[in-house]
Fold:
Amino acid sequence: MQSGKLFIKGNEAVALAAIEAGCVHYFGYPITPQSEIPEYLARELPKIGGQFLQAESETAAINMLLGASATGVRSMTSSSGPGISLMQEGISYMAGSELPGVIVDVMRSGPGLGGIDASQADYFQATHGGGHGGYHIIVLAPCSVQEMYDLTMLAFDLSDIYRIPAMVLADAVIGQMKESIVAHPRPATLLPEKSWAVRGKEEGQSQNIVKSLQLGDGEMEAFHWKMHARYQSLSLNECRWEEYLTSDAELIVTAFGSAARIAKSAVEMARDSGLKIGLMRPISLYPFPQAAYRSLSERCKNFLDIELSTGQMINDVKLSVARDTEVFFYGRPPGTGSLPDPEELFQHIKSTLWQLPVQV
Amino acid sequence: MRYNVFLSGYGGQGVMLAGNLLSFAAIYQGYNVTYLPSYGVEKRGGSAMCTVVYSDGDTGSPVVGHPSVAVILNQRSFDTYANNVCRGGFCIINSDLVINSESLSPSIVLVEVPMSRLANELGDSRVLNMIACGAYAQKTGLLSIDSLVAALENTLPVRNHPLIPANIKAIECGAESVRT
Structure:
């Protein structure tokens, strides 16, 4: 083995990063395709004095996360499709209580029990709130095992800084695949003190209350405007994305997570055959990098959105680009045998090019 | 350069372990590697397949539609995947379980290895996957037998390290079977 490098699954990288990030509590319930996360943490957390707890259900797990987070410690949970659906109430309560906490969603197909294959059909649920009350959570979408590690660590930091729950949104491909990673130490990010945490009041200290119930006159409205400002600050400061060969592109392919990985190879094939194609990969799905899309669309007027669904992110792309931009779509809804390969996407890129107006 | 290999068989034949061994061998030779497993909900008897992509640069898509080499361990995998191999690529089959290979496109090079028989002759039917790995390395020349041997320690759980010599024998047997 090369020194300092590990060859591990995406799910294991999440667990490794969580421990490196100082996560000491994990609550969860097994479900494919993310079970390597609890498996790893069940083994490793007790060794460092942490706590692993297999909850009786995902509903219990998310509420345990809420409770642990209220005491100011770094904690996380992870699940997939049906389990994440069960967690929505708790996520809403965490958002209403301004609590940080990391939730890892390794998407599988649905609705209902669905299947264990990779999916991106929970984009809406993640980025446009599954729970009630009009909140947002931070959503980061890794496309490699290294990013599973890096973005998990970032999720803990952003969640603490903004006091908003953060989700790592992966899928069965990214969670199950193995790649070499460098498990670098936690970055020295300056984090705010958690003066709001409920750790047991000492003599002379003021009382802390963590709650989402706001009954006072104007209290709830004020809370919403405060959070709105925080979401705007997220949009200004925390958008992340990757551009690949976009500067001279006549068509920009856009995709996130595993679809972006496959699409990037299709873009390479297109470039090899002389076609000017680029790739725009949003890394933060909330905040969505609207300004970056807008700026790209000032020059390139044609986008092709590719997703492992019938189209969800495309709505955010359309809202972000300049009005005279054409946004095409190609999707493969999830399921066994439904994962597109680079050749298929390349063929679709070519057929999209034929639809473009002739440049004069 | 970017290389890829697709392995498929039924659950229990050691497809995932073989994919891991090739991955570690490629890492040992300094490549960047992406290993993507895929399997049904059954633990044994269901379909099991994996793709290994290795490259001196970016590994690109973990999903490969037309692999340059496929290692096929049973008939069902052959019927489903063999003709996905790209033109001029190798289809290395376990000829003991792939009885009918007539449907293979003439543009794909068929490499027949009696893996089940060779494994039984070595005294352990479980080393079939190691024979497959040895045949892959020898036939393609992309990974060395030494790398495969070196990768065993990382691939096998510590409790199985006493079996490393038997696995080395199987890797060498697989390589020998395709040596021309």
